[in-house]
Write a structure and sequence with these properties.
about 260 residues; 1 helix; mainly beta; elongated; Immunoglobulin-like; 2 domains
């Protein structure tokens, strides 16, 4: 199946624009590779760099941009998957000017790439990818054809690595003490793992309130655990403390909510 407009819009928004000098009757083409856990967090992965995805199923794609000075009437690109990666449900097909084999996608721009038209200076494609197992997978791409001469072919090809890890698993929020009293320190914790590996959560954030009164939470993390501590007021007996713990694990943003009644 072909990539959808929403995914293409995400890719187009990520393209790096600029102005480049070139010889007459020439088009300077820039190619980028992209990857992410889901459509909403796909990012450009510069050549030689690595993107971590926390699932055996993720998104990958390719973009090409003409930074001028002339229009490129036709442009074709190719994406290569290494052994161990396969197309998912959404794969390159003729509906998006693409053909595919088991490990390649060949695509043609659906319109001339005009550096003077912000809506048509670039184009991109994205698909579902499945990995056989966790590991590092180099994905490569290149411009295979252009109707205009490119004075700088150094940015016409790229190879980026996707580091595939098991999907992040987050346990239920556990509160200690289990039956907290008003005026005590209440700590909420969640276990965070990827496969059988404990993950150290990053950027832990805390939010808590009792009724309309907000509480300041103290965030913390350790191997396999994200936590938030809240000092409750003595006047909150019989009230409910509601809160959330937010964090990032293996490039995945996660938030969990909890509620506990104070004695």
């Amino acid at each position: 199946m072909g990539s959808r407009a929403g995914l293409a819009a995400v890719f187009s928004a990520l393209l790096v624009t600029g102005v480049a000098s070139a010889a007459p009757d020439a088009s300077n083409l820039d190619l980028n590779l992209l990857a992410g856990n889901t459509r909403s967090d796909v990012v450009i992965v510069p050549s030689g760099q690595t993107k971590t995805v926390a699932s055996l199923h993720f998104k990958a794609g390719i973009t090409v941009e003409n930074v001028g000075p002339d229009v490129a009437q036709t442009v074709r690109v190719r994406l290569h998957l290494p052994n161990g990666l396969h197309w998912g449900t959404d794969f390159p097909d003729p509906s998006e000017n693409c053909t595919s084999t088991a490990n390649t996608a060949d695509c043609a721009s659906p319109y001339p790439l005009d550096p003077n038209d912000l809506n048509k200076r670039s184009t991109g494609w994205g698909w579902d990818i499945t990995a056989d197992a966790p590991g590092d997978y180099p994905i490569s791409g290149e411009v295979t054809e252009s109707s205009s001469t490119d004075p700088d072919t150094s940015d016409n090809a790229a190879t980026s690595t996707v580091h595939v890890t098991p999907a992040v698993t987050v346990g239920r929020v556990k509160v200690s003490p289990a039956k907290p009293t008003a005026g005590s320190l209440v700590t909420a914790r969640v276990l965070v793992t990827a496969g059988e590996t404990k993950v150290v959560p990053e950027g832990v954030s805390c939010a808590g309130k009792i009724g309309r009164v907000k509480l300041i939470g103290r965030p913390g993390s350790s191997e396999g655990t994200a936590r938030c501590g809240f000092r409750t007021p003595h006047s909150a007996a019989g009230r409910i403390l509601r809160g959330t713990i937010g964090f990032t694990a293996n490039d995945t943003k996660i938030k969990r909510a909890f509620a506990v009644k104070l004695r």
